[in-house]
């Protein structure tokens, strides 16, 4: 199996050294940069399997960089783990809304960091396994709502609705299990790909944004809250 290439962007040299040492000790290839601008100059030199991105950086900050990465041809699907000394919930939510795969705050346990990295990469590997697809695998439809799995596109009466990566994955999971109640823990495990270290409220935040987008398009209450349990997509 080829070694995974991880890019780490952090302006603190001792943090870079700590992360690099421990990831390399676990069999990863690691490239380190003290700024996003420095990292951008090397894009294309070798494939990247995961990016560890600090939020508070000189020059371009991590949130701005994450937004750029998610719209970049080569980096759009590369998993991103945000790393920051800032623990405020707004930063965490914003990062997840922009498509980050996970979030960890300093000071962190090296063991926990490595575990998260491995878990994210396991999920990425599972998503790359080719399978024979049927027509039902390409689209999920409910009344005028259509989810194009191949194109990662949601439309309502043929009008596109922009979703973040996590919003799309949550909606796909719910629509694939119409009428079934999915707990927050199950949604976290299926969408984030492992036992999430954060709070299950992360799911509530994403559901709230999904509902707001539905409401803006006059879409009905398709996602129901089952108090004390989780969520389900209406069957009919």
TrEMBL record:
4-aspartylphosphate found at: 54
Domain of life of the source: Bacteria
Nucleotide-binding found in the keyword field: no
GO MF entries: phosphorelay response regulator activity; transcription cis-regulatory region binding
GO annotation, biological process: regulation of DNA-templated transcription
Record bears the keyword Nucleotide-binding: no
Start and end residues of each Response regulatory domain: 5-121
Annotated ranges, domain OmpR/PhoB-type: 137-235
Keywords: DNA-binding, Phosphoprotein, Transcription, Transcription regulation, Two-component regulatory system
Protein name in UniProt: Stage 0 sporulation protein A homolog
Residues within the DNA-binding region(s): 137-235
Role of this protein: May play the central regulatory role in sporulation. It may be an element of the effector pathway responsible for the activation of sporulation genes in response to nutritional stress. Spo0A may act in concert with spo0H (a sigma factor) to control the expression of some genes that are critical to the sporulation process.
Cellular component annotations (GO), alphabetically ordered: cytosol; protein-DNA complex
């Amino acid at each position: 199996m080829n070694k995974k290439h991880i890019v780490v962007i952090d302006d603190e040299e001792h943090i870079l050294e700590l992360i690099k040492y421990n990831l390399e000790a676990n069999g990863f290839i690691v490239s380190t940069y003290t700024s996003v601008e420095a990292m951008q100059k090397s894009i294309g030199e070798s494939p990247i399997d995961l990016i560890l991105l600090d939020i508070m950086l000189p020059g371009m900050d991590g949130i701005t960089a994450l937004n750029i990465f998610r719209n970049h041809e080569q980096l759009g699907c590369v998993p991103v783990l945000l790393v920051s000394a800032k623990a405020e919930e707004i930063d965490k939510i914003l990062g997840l809304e922009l498509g980050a795969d996970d979030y960890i705050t300093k000071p962190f346990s090296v063991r926990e960091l490595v575990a998260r990295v491995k878990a994210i990469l396991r999920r990425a590997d599972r998503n790359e396994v080719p399978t024979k697809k049927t027509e039902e695998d390409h689209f999920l439809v409910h009344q005028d709502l259509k989810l194009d799995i191949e194109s990662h596109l949601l439309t309502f009466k043929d009008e596109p609705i922009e979703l973040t990566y996590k919003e799309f994955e949550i909606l796909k999971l719910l629509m694939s299990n119409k009428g079934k109640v999915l707990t927050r823990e199950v949604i976290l495990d299926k969408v984030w790909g492992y036992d999430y270290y954060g709070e299950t409220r992360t799911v509530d935040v994403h559901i709230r944004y999904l509902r707001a987008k539905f409401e803006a398009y006059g879409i009905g209450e398709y996602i129901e809250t089952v108090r004390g349990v989780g969520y389900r997509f209406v069957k009919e």
